[in-house]
Amino acid sequence: MTWLDTLTSTPVLIAGALGISAAVYAKRQSASPVTPAPVQSTSRTAQSTMEQKKDGSVMSPPAANLELPKDDPISVAELRQYDGTDPSKPIYVAIKGRVFDVSHKKEMYGKGTGYNVFAGKDASKGLGMSSLDPKDAVADYSGLNEAQMKTLDQWESFFEKRYNIVGKVVP
Description:
Elements: H1 3-7, H2 10-31, H3 49-53, E1 73-75, H4 76-80, E2 92-95, E3 98-101, H5 106-109, H6 124-129, H7 146-162, E4 164-170
Parallel strand pairs: 1-4
Antiparallel strand pairs: 2-3, 3-4
């Protein structure tokens, strides 16, 4: 049998066609990025493109019962009191100066949990960097690169759709 006979045999042709089909399918799947839709200030419960594409996601769905955002001034010192250590107080996380009440997710932000590093502070930089290092959980996000800024914006959008805004961080 010559190399041409081998190359054009039915098993080789079938394997080649399946391989090419699988490669094309994989490329198409990886080429369609999943990005959230822009935040709509008039509708805080709108579904983002990302959530529509991720049916069955482990992320909680947007809340349907959010209150109107508040802009009450909250000092950095006051914000620190809402870090999840006192069970009688709510848990707050600030992003870009806006303070979110995350109390109903104590399993995520409460004392001893993974995201507690962000509780009681403006954690913009750490969220943008996707970092759980306490030294990164700071308000100054001016050093973030473009990709990190996009991540921070996605976190902000995520929080806007799930948590009440209770105030604004003031110096």
